Backbone:
C-alpha cells in the first residue's frame, strides 16, 4: 500500500511539473514572438530614421545653395543692395529676434 501511494504521489508531482513546463513553454514562445515583432519594428524605425536623415541632409544642402544663390543675386542688384530697410520691417525683425523689448 505504501508503495502504491508513493507511485501515486510521484505521478501527481510529475503531472504538475509537466503542466507547469507546458505553460512555461507556451509563455516563452509568446515572449519570443513579441521580441521578434519588436525587433522588426525597431529595424523599420531605424530604416525610416536613416531615410529621414538622408532627406534632411539633401534639404539642408539645397537650402544652403539656394540661400547663396539668392544672396549673390541680391548683391549684384544695386536696387536691393543699396536700399535701406524700412523701419516697420526692421521692427518686425527685431521682435522676431527678440532684440527689442
Residues:
Amino acid at each position: 500500500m505504501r508503495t502504491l501511494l508513493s507511485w501515486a504521489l510521484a505521478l501527481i508531482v510529475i503531472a504538475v511539473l509537466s503542466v507547469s513546463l507546458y505553460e512555461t513553454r507556451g509563455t516563452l514562445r509568446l515572449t519570443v514572438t513579441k521580441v521578434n515583432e519588436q525587433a522588426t519594428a525597431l529595424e523599420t524605425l531605424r530604416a525610416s530614421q536613416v531615410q529621414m536623415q538622408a532627406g534632411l541632409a539633401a534639404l539642408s544642402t539645397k537650402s544652403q545653395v539656394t540661400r547663396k544663390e539668392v544672396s549673390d543675386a541680391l548683391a549684384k542688384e544695386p536696387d536691393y543692395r543699396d536700399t535701406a530697410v524700412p523701419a516697420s520691417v526692421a521692427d518686425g525683425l527685431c521682435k522676431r529676434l527678440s532684440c527689442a523689448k
Q: What stands out?
A: Helices lie at 2-76, 78-81, 87-97.
